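Posting for a labmate who doesn't have an account.
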Amino acid sequence: MIPLSGRVPEAISWIPRDGIGGGGVSGRFSASWLSHPQDPWYIAYQDESTQWCSQRMDLEEKVANLGDELARKNLMIFELKRIVEEEKKNSELIRKEKLRVETDLAVFDQVVENLEHKLKVMGEEKSRFICAVLLGVIPVLAVMWFW
């Protein structure tokens, strides 16, 4: 800051008399209220103005970098949301496929039970048939044997 006492502090006495950086901020700020360009107050103003411009450019660069980073992160968020939606669809498809397979399995279990029952019934019928045949054939064979 520029001191209000009217004296230029020694800290800025090293500043060259021809100004800083060719005249400061290229007309953005008016220094008409200051005295001659070789006046220490004017030099201090130019130095501070140059520092402000440098800091402003640094801040603008940081803001631009933050904007780029924000855009990258927004793209990442968008991609993650897309992946989550895709995974939700996939999990829904998997759930439906699982239900279909479970239903098919229940139907196949029922078919197997029905076939087992039919085989059992057929086995019992064959056993009765064989018993009937044997009961009919054995007496005939016994009669023929003894005859």
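Reply:
Got it, the structure tokens are right above this. Residues 1-19, 21-31 have pLDDT under 50 and may be disordered.
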